[in-house]
Amino acid sequence: MLMSSVIKVLPLRSSRAHEACGPAAVSFAAIIAGQMQGSVLWISERWRQEQVHPEGLAIFCDPSKLVFASGTDQTEVLAASEEALRSGAVSAVISTLSKPLDLRQGRRLQLAAETGQSTGLFLIPEGMGSNAAETRWRSNPVYDAQDSTLMRWDLIKNKSGTLKSWLVRWDAEAHRVSVVHEDGK
Amino acid sequence: MQKRIVSVWFMRMASDRVLRAMPAHGPFALSVQDQNTERLYCLNIAAEELGLSRGMGLSDARALCPDLKTIPANIQSDQAFLQVLARWAKRYCPWVGVDGPDGLVLDITGSAHLFGGEAALLDDLRLRVTRARLQVCLGLASTRGAAWALARHGEGIAPAGQLQETIAPLPVAALRIQDQTAQSLQRLGIRTIADLIALPRATVTRRFGRDLLLRLDQALGTQPETVSPLAEPPQYTVRLTLPDPIGLTSDVMAGVERLTGSLCNKLKAQEHGARVVQLTCRRVDQAHQQVDLRLARAMRDPARIVALFEPGVDKIDAGFGIDQMRLEAVQVEPLPVAQITHIAQTNPDAIQDLITRLGNRIGLENITRLLPADSHIPERSFIVAAAAYSDPASSWPVLRDRPLQLFPPEAIAGSGRAPPQQFRWRRMSFVTARATGPERLAPEWWFQDAAWRSGLRDYWKIQTLEGRRLWLFHTPQSPGWFVQGEFA
C-alpha cells in the first residue's frame, strides 16, 4: 500500500487495538477507514450530536462501506465493539469513547481484536488512553495558506517501535496521504 | 356415497358486519363509489322495507328516505370477514369453500351424522350464525348448483333422491346464469327450471350457448362440480416435547438445533425466510421462558440461526427443568432461492450475522447506514437507514465541498455579512485566516423544518490560524452567525 511506504506504522497493525485523540481524530479515523478493504463499523453513544457527513467523508472513504451503530452508554458501546472485533466480520471497528478505559476493558478489547483479526480504533478524549493500546495517535489540524487538509499526526505511544511526528496532507487525486514533513524523536 | 352440499348465503353480510360493531335502529345502508356516483351496496331490512334496493343511487335513496344512515362500504374487510366465517365453518366439515362475495359452500358428505342429521346440522348452523347477528339462507342438496339455487331462492333441503322435483319449481335465475340470459328466458315464457328441462337441448344450446345447459346439468348432477376448499395458511411453528425435563445449555441447544432444522425445511418449502424467531421454553412448573431473535436479513439457514440463538439460550433460567420447546417464525418474508455464482462475495453473511447479534443487544434500529438523498440541504442530503432493512448505496455523488462532521448549529458572536475576524466557539478563540464563500442555500419551502425557519443561509468555509477548519453560516434574514460543521 502506498501509505505504508511513506509512514512505516501505517496502515495500523491488524489484530490490535489503537487509539486516536485530538481535534482531528475523526479525520484520522476516516482516512484509516478508507484504507481498509472490507466493511467498517463505527460505534458511538446515542447522545452525541456530531454526525459524520457522507459527502465530506467520501473524499477519504466510500461511505457505503461504513455501518454505524449507537449505544445508550459507554458500556454498551464497548460491549458492541468487543462483539464486532471478536466476530471478525468487519475489517475495522471505530468507537468514539467519552470516558477512560480501565486496564481490564482495554485488555479485553485487545484480546477481542486478536481473536477476530480485525483492527480496533478508539477515538478517546485527550489524555485518557489505556495501557493496552498498541499505538496512540494525536491528530491536529494545521493552518495552511492553501486550501488543504494539512494535519499533524503525532505517534505518542507505540508498543513496537519508536515515536514520530508527521505533517501530512490528504491527496484526493491519488487517494492517499502525502507526507509534507517528517521528524523523529 | 352421494355427495351432500350445503350452500350458505349471508344475504346482508356487509351491512350485518358493520351493524354488529355499531348497532343502529332504522334504515341503514352501505354505499360504494361507482363511476362518480354513490350507490347503495348493502342495506338492512328496515331500509329494504322502505322500498330501497341495491344499486340504487344514494341521492335517490335519500330522497325516498331522508333519515337513511349510510357509511362507505369496506369491501376488503368484508372479504376478510368471509374468510373468518369460512374458517369457522370448518367446525361442520373439513371441506369449506368461498362462494362469491357473500357465500360459503360446505361439502358435508359423511359428517352430517355427527350433528344428528342434516336438518339438525342446518338448525345448528342457523342458530349460531343468527346468534352472531348475521342473516343467513341455507340450501342443502346433492349438487352444488342445486344447493346454491335453494339457498338463494327459498331455502330448503332437497332429499337425496328428489333433486329434480325440489328445484323444478324454482325460477331460472336460480341456475347461476347471467341476468341477461335469465331475462331473455323470462321473455320467452320460460320461467321455471321445469320449463327449461322440458325444452329440447339442441335448440336451447343454439339460442343461449353452452353455458346455460352446463349450469342446468351441474344443478341436476349430470355434470360433476367440485368444492375447492380454502388453502391452509402455512404455519411456521415447530414444537418439541420431552419425556424428561432438561436443564443444561448444551441440551437446550441440541433441542433448538433439531427444531431449527424442521422450521427451516418448512420455510424452504414455501420459499420464505424468517425475520423474527421466537423460542419458548416451558418449564415443569408451567412457567415460560422466551428468547426473541430479530434477524438482520430474512434467512433459513439452520446453522446460522442456531449460532445466533446461543447468547439468548445462555440467559434462560431453566428452573426445575424444561419439558417443552416451541420455535416459531413470528415474522417471515419471501426469500426466493438464489443462484450461487462464482463471483466471490466478501462474505456478506458474516456482517449480517454481526448486525443481528448487535441488534439483539442494542436494538436493530440503532444500527444504521447512510444512503444518498436528493436535497441540497446539508442535513437532508443523506438518509440514515436501518442497516437491517437497506442495502449499501452503490455510488456516492460528491458535488459540493462538505464538512466531515455535521452538528446542530451553534451560535457564535458575529455581525455583518462578512465572516468575523475573530470569534469564540466552544470556549476556544479563533482567528480567521482564510474564508471561502459564501455558498447561499435557500430552505426547501415544501418542507416544514424548524431549523430553517430563519431563512436563507450563506455558508462559509473558515480556516483558522489555530488550524481548525470550520463551516460557518450567516442568516441574512434574521442576522446571526452559527457554526454547523468541521472539515477534515
TrEMBL record, chain B:
Classification lineage: Bacteria, Pseudomonadati, Pseudomonadota, Alphaproteobacteria, Rhodobacterales
Catalytic activity: DNA(n) + a 2'-deoxyribonucleoside 5'-triphosphate = DNA(n+1) + diphosphate
Protein name: DNA-directed DNA polymerase
Residues of the UmuC domain: 29-150
Catalytic class of the enzyme: transferase
EC identifiers of the protein: 2.7.7.7
Assembly information from the UniProt record: Monomer.
Parts of the chain that traverse the membrane: none
Residue span, DNA polymerase Y-family little finger domain: 237-335
RNA-binding keyword on record: no
Function: Poorly processive, error-prone DNA polymerase involved in untargeted mutagenesis. Copies undamaged DNA at stalled replication forks, which arise in vivo from mismatched or misaligned primer ends. These misaligned primers can be extended by PolIV. Exhibits no 3'-5' exonuclease (proofreading) activity. May be involved in translesional synthesis, in conjunction with the beta clamp from PolIII.
InterPro entries named in the record: DNA/RNA_pol_sf, DNA_pol_Y-fam_little_finger, Rev_trsase/Diguanyl_cyclase, SulA_CellDiv_inhibitor, UmuC
Family: Belongs to the DNA polymerase type-Y family.
Keyword terms of this UniProt record: DNA damage
